[in-house]
Design goal:
The chain contains 11 helices and 11 strands. With about 350 residues, it is an alpha/beta fold.
Amino acid sequence: MRISVLDAGSNTVRLAVCDVGDGVPLPVHTAKWKLRLSEQVGADGCLGEEATDRLVKALRAACEMSRQWDAPEPLAFATAVVRDAPDRPDVLGTVHSRTGLRLRVLPGEAEARLTFLGARRWMGWRSGPLALFDIGGGSLEVAFGRGRTPDFAASLPLGAHRLTNEFFGSEDPPSQANMVALRRKVRHQLRDVSARIRWEHPHTAVATSRTFQQLARLCGAAPGRHGPFVERVLRRQDLRRAIVRLAGLSAIERAGLPGISGPRSRQSLAGAIIGHAAMKLSAVKSLMICPWALREGILLRYLEDGADWWADLERPEATRTHRDGAPADARPLRVATPPAMT
């Protein structure tokens, strides 16, 4: 069975075409389109016609590529950049009318839950009680759980691009005062969430997202060309030193550092501050970098719960329930119980 998933994020539209064997999605082709939608959001928060047009062209190209690889219509979804846009209905309507594609918009908590599922499956059961952190362009997702799905999940408006615009503006590099103000906001927003993580005492803490991957590379982790099975760790003390390093450089200079890409160099400092604050407040000294995240979580959930679950994402959130009355995102997965450990 071949299936594809399409992710419209704040910076990039990504397509992953996978073969599924024994319930495990194995990639056969990936592609990306760097749209940087978050940089095109107007002062009113709207995406507008130009950004929507670029999004449509990328989605159309991705659908065509999916067909070329003999996959059905992609499971297409958008995250914070579309979710938070006041003109979201117009964007989704334009996408559907011009491509025939129904672009689902994930609620923030659903994004956290699905990302947790992908991370749990990659890390395995021996990781024990698991905490998850994911920094996107518009939001920060945090989750904790002992089983297949999280016991607790949250999405906060602490994305790296969002806070870069809010606190740094055109400053390059930013002032110390604005860095302090950004850190203060992050600490305030994370207060309750991080207290829950501390209370749960996770056995393993993982990070997903390109922001964390690039920061780990900056702090000495193996480069991506070494493959997904190499262990990569991001230590809090190393990240603290990286903040000092990033703060003294312009965006152009940061792009010359190991792991920091040009398109993300401007927001890399804010991402590092967010990540360090989340780790410190949650009493997490190190994070395992996990290559599976939201896209893999969606593929796994679709394989296990089928097309009905995916279609249900289009219904209004208030009516998105199942027979047990639980929200669709919190519905237990229909998978086998893992064997007892001996």
